């Protein structure tokens, strides 16, 4: 059975990438919690790469599980809107969403662009560290690969759960 995206269109299989790139899709408006997949199409022993990214901000809690529980789960199960720094908040009073520092300030050091467009030059910021502390298995900035990219051989299927109840032990 083919995988489908949230609007029912089939996902195309493609080889995994060295770094999962932040791609904008039609209709995606930050801030947005994003599940990202790079599905193996016969290369690299059928290994699928997946992650949950807060690089474009946070708007809802999410868990991604692969291989019917055989593979590591990842996600962000806390309400980051409650912990969102004031300069990143969207909404009056209680935040409705939390922007990334890149979206809020549009500066290369926050966006990992220009002279900061490499893992050596782009480092975590105080803002991305707020995201990482709350959601340690999710991407908090563009080059947060080492603790945020997950792999699964022959996963077969992935389950994405939006706004899950409670925090599962395996995500703590």
Shape: globular
The averaged pLDDT comes out at 81
Q: Provide the CATH architecture.
A: Sandwich
What is the beta-strand fraction?
A: 15-25%
Explain what this protein looks like in three dimensions:
Strands 1-2-7 form a three-stranded antiparallel β-sheet, with no helix packed on it. It contains four helices and eight strands. Residues 1-26 have low confidence and may be disordered. The longest helix is centred in the C-terminal third of the chain and has 9 residues, at 126-134. It has helices at 80-83, 101-105, 108-111, 126-134; strands at 34-38, 47-53, 62-66, 74-76, 89-90, 97-98, 150-153, 158-162. The protein is globular, with a radius of gyration of 16 Å. The chain has 172 residues and is an alpha+beta fold. The chain has a single domain, classed as Thaumatin.
Notable features of this structure?
3-stranded antiparallel beta sheet; alpha+beta; Thaumatin; 8 strands; 19% strand; 172 residues; 4 helices; disordered N terminus
Characterize this entry briefly.
This protein is α+β, with helices and mostly antiparallel strands and 172 residues long.
Secondary structure blueprint with pairings:
Layout: E1 34-38, E2 47-53, E3 62-66, E4 74-76, H1 80-83, E5 89-90, E6 97-98, H2 101-105, H3 108-111, H4 126-134, E7 150-153, E8 158-162
Antiparallel strand pairs: 1-2, 2-7, 3-4, 3-8, 5-6
